[in-house]
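quick one, 136 residues, struct below
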Amino acid sequence: MTPFEFKHPVLFQHCDPAGMVFYPRYFEMISACVETWFEQVLEVPYNQLHLHHNLSVPTVSTQTKFRAPSHLGDLLTFELQVEKLGSTSLQLRISAQCEGQIRLTNETSLVLIEQINGRPTPWSKHPCFSDLTTRI
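---
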């Protein structure tokens, strides 16, 4: 699969007083990238996932390396690549760069859960993910 690209500007709201991205804001940007990927690639927007299918995809693990600072006014390009699809989980590799310089690398694992019981559930059990392997 070709990596999914998501562009995100660094806004004032993302920065500390020095004008650099405050590291927790990167996790918001990563989440926006994943949510947009679900909508554009998997064709399952979060509002449908959560409100109509009663499913969620919480993060169960994440590891990030901050390689270089990002600053107010930068335009970050996030690249999302599926590393592994499990029966109930999904491992993603995400990076962010600006003008060819890598700003961060991230590995995130998500798990599909049923909201009613909070338990993991197989992707294959749900019609909205019936052709998941062909979309990733």
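The chain has three helices and eight strands.
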